[in-house]
Amino acid sequence: MKDTKTIKKAKIFSIILMPQVHQYVAILEEIDGTRLLPIWIGVNEGNAIAMHMEKQKMPRPMTHDLLAGILNKVGVKVEKIVISDLKENTYYATLYIKLDGKSYEIDARPSDSMAIAVRTDSPIFIEEKVFEKCPVIRKPITDQEIEEFKTKLKDLKPEDFFNKT
Questions:
Q1: Residue 73, exposed/middle/buried by CB under 10 A (0-12, 13-18, 19+)?
Q2: Strands 102-108 and 90-99
Q3: What Rg value do the Cα atoms of the chain yield, rounded?
Q4: What residue stretches are annotated with the BFN domain (predicted)?
Q5: Correct CATH for 7-157 of 3.40.50.300, 3.40.50.40, 3.10.690.10, 1.10.10.10
Q6: What is the mean pLDDT of the chain?
Q7: What is the pTM of this model?
């Protein structure tokens, strides 16, 4: 497992539908800090996260519900998910799971990882190097600042956001 000094605990601060580009932006919030990390994700994954966070139930299990159910049924514990890197405007994530006392690291998309994390009550972490590769965005304090932040996000495209390093 990763050294906890290089990863920061986070939670999903907000998930915003961007209908003009058929995507969502998941905003992750650094728990013991002030930084926010926006991640552009697909509509299906965004819907999966948003529906679960809003406690909406489908009559039949959706893909992430099915996977979480299988993991639970066979005794796999999702220990955490880590947003692990940012390369060429693409975020990477790792699922840390445990089965029968043995730990495994699984490469995954951040969107799928977040959808699984909300279903398994698993903690979310962000590698410090991911924050270093992005412009610093600080947590809004007031409702007005939150609305201004959401408005600014609607004008951004993913390629406008990343540092070119």
A1: exposed
A2: antiparallel
A3: 16
A4: 7-138
A5: 3.10.690.10
A6: 89
A7: 0.82
Is residue 164 within 8 A of residue 132, CB to CB? The reply is: no
> Which tokens in the block code for residue 158?
């993913």
Measure the CA–CA gap between 83 and 106, rounded to whole angstroms.
Answer: 12
User: pLDDT tens across 79-98, in order?
Assistant: 999 999 999 989 999 999 99
For residue 84, give both structure tokens.
Answer: 């692990």
Q: Show the tokens assigned to 77.
A: 């514990």
pLDDT in tens, 146-163: 777 777 777 776 666 665
113 closest CA partner among 158, 80, 70: 80
Residues in contact with 153: Cβ distance below 8 Å, sequence separation at least 6, in sequence order: 16, 18, 25, 38
d(CA 101, CA 104): 10
d(Cα 150, Cα 13) in Å, to the nearest integer? 12
